[in-house]
Design a protein that fits this description.
The complex is a heterodimer. By secondary structure, chain A is of the alpha+beta class. Helices cover 54% and strands 15% of the residues of chain A. In chain A, strands 1, 2, 3, 4, 5, 6, 7 and 8 form an eight-stranded mixed sheet that branches. The termini of chain A are far apart. Chain B has a five-stranded parallel sheet with strand order 8-5-4-12-23. Chain B is α/β, with parallel strands linked by helices. In chain B, α3 (105-117) packs parallel to α9. Classes of the chains: A alpha+beta, B alpha/beta.
């Protein structure tokens, strides 16, 4: 086969720098042009997402042949997007973890062409794993229930706020397996949920502070049949344990990008306002040094995203927490640096303040991260 | 209305070819880009600044074109280079002071030594437990002395914190040191420090064959109190894996408390770490009237729950049943904080013998977590001297250099007290 006949993203002949440059071009061009519509009008940037996919932003982390198994590159690409639009950066993360689930499932029906479609952006997908992740961290209980039936399971329940959804989309989801009487059977089912499947209803959510354009819906499931083609893992706990560090680590791209965008807008007014801004805490050079150190940490962790040691996971959780804290400080300081011009509703600075709040509260939120670190750090003893 | 003077056709053509310029509104910072124009304000894309009517208004703040000036984006390098000229801003919250990690004897002694020299300096003590003060040696003799577990703490953490005028962050995990920003990341937020003192101690080693959830390790008051609660008031079968100092002391004390002890070790006799002392035989002899069965030369291969009790299986196939199992297989120093700060390491946090300074000049360490010349120091006696040496350094007081001495170990096996050298 002539490699020239293959789509470019399949051949991986682009260098990492070329991929990043292509992503940056989309982010600073077509994405920047619609960022206000995404934020203010709830515009879902399907075309931009597909351009990002074509540039390779959704595949870098996946193993060959779908990708190049480079988590660092995937995170840097997500950061380029988040630097311009935090909401779109979040959707990139949704897309990346959906691909991660599909590939890690080892289900042939979710690999091959299905995975390739997601990796290229032809298909779009999300993750309904906020509730399960909080459930495993002992913060809330599972909302979906799966009852075994001939050839699969019937899944019912309602999940609030699942992102990057729409007609034709799919998302990774997890349900507690129960018997016919609704009694838990002590295991979970992880599966791919197709938004178009019979029994699935997408319901509009109330308005969000900064995530209006992210295709976020409440998912209502009534006896949705999940068969072998959708199954990712059962029992799901070992599967989650395998992917949890990669799942959290990828989110660092959002944090790093939002923080970088904030630092950019501090520099943008430095020539005019530096004479007064020098009296502020958290100046751009100090924040940049801290961000660079954090980025270096994240890149080192990205070399081994499937390291399953507790100590490694604590490092990932802490890097993610540091990213959220730094996003908050950088966005806040950018607003103080820009003053009134940053307070205009049309300013990316005030938008970024709201985006930084999202980085801090989306699962895993800062408080969840700290609670999980505390839980994992405690010496285990007989109960 | 166009008030610009009309140009010759040649001049107009020249202007049309010139690159588009950007103009900055002096009032609000709005950037007018000639390429984009201001379509909402009646200026199509490509409208030159010179062609903007005088009655046009800035779309953000309403001033006219007279308040605009040419704008060239400055280079980031130039902006960066200009920054150091301004004085630094005080970081939030005043002086960061000293942050101490660990509220065992080493952490509290450190706080006491600092307070003795400086009444005002901010001190923050970070502890993963409640931070109550107690004497750890009592954990080995409390049954012999008839001390109830809930009476072992001699002062609560909050009371000691109030007495020493320090901030105690109890039940808080220290996660990472960031030396470049001089911050300690914890599960209750980020702490700035001027000086950091690591006093987090060592952790009991868990032999690979023993699952953590099935066996106790007694290195803290909290674990000891929970073990005593699990044992209750009636005699129980207790298996202790490891017959070193702690294993032998606990065996002795729990046996005096009426429990039946099986003490296992890979060595042929207890206290085999001090071979010159030949302490094992006299100790076993002193124990002969107690319910202590010593089984030497065995390697524990498996521990499993069986019908509400536990079963230990050795590599040679012997089985022992127990109500509770204690692992006493020595100590190891947690590496996380030292690693995060890139501190030199040699069997523990490597410190200078005299100053207790680590390889980072803002970070000192003392107690069970340090090693001097590759030699960990896990005894009580040196801790107060170590704390005084660090406090003198941090408070610019006359030096009080620490000097390691050969440790004398008093084995608190009350049926046969021993001194090991």
């Amino acid at each position: 086969m002539n490699p020239n006949d293959l789509p470019r993203e399949l051949t991986h002949e682009t260098t990492a720098d070329a991929l990043l440059a292509a992503v940056r071009t989309v982010a600073q061009g077509p994405l920047a042009a619609v960022v206000e519509a995404i934020d203010r009008e709830g515009h879902y940037p399907r075309e931009v997402l597909q351009q990002l996919g074509a540039a390779g932003a959704f595949s870098a982390h996946l193993d060959a042949p779908a990708g190049r198994a480079d988590y660092g590159l995937a995170i840097r690409a997500m950061a380029e997007v988040s630097r311009v639009c935090g909401a779109t950066g979040f959707m990139v993360w949704c897309q990346l973890v959906c691909g991660l689930y599909m590939q890690a499932s080892d289900n042939p029906a979710l690999g091959g062409a299905a995975l390739q479609a997601l990796a290229s952006g032809e298909a779009l997908g999300g993750t309904a794993m906020s509730n399960p992740m909080k459930s495993y961290a002992q913060i809330e209980s599972l909302l979906l229930k799966a009852t075994p039936v001939e050839g699969g399971h019937l899944v019912s329940g309602t999940l609030p706020w699942v992102s990057n959804l729409g007609p034709g989309h799919a998302c990774g989801a997890l349900a507690a397996v129960v018997d016919a009487q609704g009694e838990p059977l002590g295991r979970e089912l992880m599966f791919l949920l197709r938004c178009d499947a019979p029994g699935v209803e997408l319901r509009d959510c109330p308005s969000f502070s900064a995530m209006e354009g992210t295709g976020t819906y409440a998912l209502r499931l009534k006896d949705v049949f999940i068969g072998a083609n959708e199954r990712m893992a059962e029992p799901a706990k070992p599967f989650i344990a395998r992917i949890r560090a990669a799942f959290v680590l990828l989110q660092c791209g959002m944090a790093v990008g939002v923080a970088q965008g904030a630092i950019d807008s501090m520099w943008a007014v430095e020539a005019q306002l530096g004479h007064v801004n020098q009296f502020l805490e958290d100046r751009p050079d100090a924040l940049q040094a801290e961000l660079d150190a954090l980025t270096a940490r994240v890149m080192a962790l990205a070399d081994t995203p499937f390291n399953d040691s507790v100590d490694f996971f604590i490092d990932v959780l802490d890097a993610r927490a540091h990213g959220a804290e730094l996003s908050l400080r950088a966005a806040q300081s950018a607003l103080l640096h820009q003053g009134a011009r940053g307070y205009l509703m049309s300013s990316d600075v005030q938008r970024r303040v709201r985006e930084s709040h999202f980085v801090a509260i989306v699962t895993p939120a800062i408080k969840h991260l700290r609670k999980e670190i505390a839980r994992l750090s405690a010496e285990v003893m007989p109960s | 209305m166009n008030t610009a003077p009309s140009l010759s056709p040649v001049a107009a053509a020249m202007q049309a070819l010139a690159p588009y310029q950007t103009y900055l509104c002096d009032a609000c910072g709005y950037l007018y880009n000639e390429a984009d124009g201001d379509p909402d304000g009646g200026l199509p894309p490509g409208t030159r600044y010179a062609d903007i009517p005088d009655d046009w208004a800035c779309p953000l703040c309403g001033v006219t074109k007279a308040d605009f000036r040419p704008y060239t984006p400055p280079s980031l390098e130039a902006l960066r280079a200009a920054l150091p000229r301004s004085a630094p801003v005080a970081a939030r919250g005043g002086a960061a002071g000293v942050v101490i990690v660990g509220a065992g004897r080493a952490g509290w002694q450190m706080a006491e030594a600092l307070r003795a020299l400086d009444a005002k300096r901010p001190i923050t003590l970070v502890s993963q437990c409640a931070g109550d003060l107690y004497d750890k040696p009592l954990l080995s003799v409390s049954l012999a002395r008839g001390l109830a577990p809930d009476t072992l703490a001699k002062e609560s953490g909050p009371a000691a914190a109030a007495r020493l005028n320090l901030r105690l962050l109890a039940h808080t995990q220290a996660v990472r040191i960031c030396p470049d920003t001089r911050t300690l990341r914890t599960t209750r937020g980020v702490l700035r420090y001027d000086h950091l003192v690591l006093a987090h101690g060592a952790q009991a080693t868990l032999p690979p064959a023993l699952p953590a959830a099935l066996c106790w390790r007694i290195n803290h008051l909290d674990a000891y109190q929970r073990l005593r609660a699990a044992l209750g008031n009636s005699p129980k079968d207790v298996a202790i894996v490891g017959a070193g100092l702690i294993g032998s002391e606990l065996a002795n004390d729990l046996a005096l408390g009426g429990h039946r002890i099986t003490l296992l070790d890979v060595q042929a006799a207890p206290l085999a770490r001090w071979p010159a002392e030949q302490a094992g035989a006299p100790l076993l002899d002193a124990w002969k009237d107690l319910a202590i069965r010593f089984v030497g030369g065995v390697q524990v291969a498996r521990l499993e729950p069986v019908a509400g009790r536990y079963r230990l299986t050795t590599a040679c196939g012997q089985r022992f049943a127990a109500d509770q199992v204690i692992a006493a297989a020595g100590l190891q120093t947690p590496t996380r904080l030292a690693r995060s700060a890139g501190l030199a390491w040699n069997q523990g946090i490597a410190v200078d013998a005299a100053t207790l300074g680590t390889s980072d000049d803002r970070i000192h360490a003392l107690g069970d977590c340090i090693a001097v010349n590759g030699q960990p120091s896990r005894f009580i006696e040196p801790i107060a001297r170590q704390a005084r040496a660090i406090a003198a350094k941090l408070c610019d007081a006359p030096p009080a250099p620490y000097a390691p001495r050969a440790a004398v170990v008093r084995v608190k096996t009350t049926s046969h007290p021993l001194t090991l050298h």
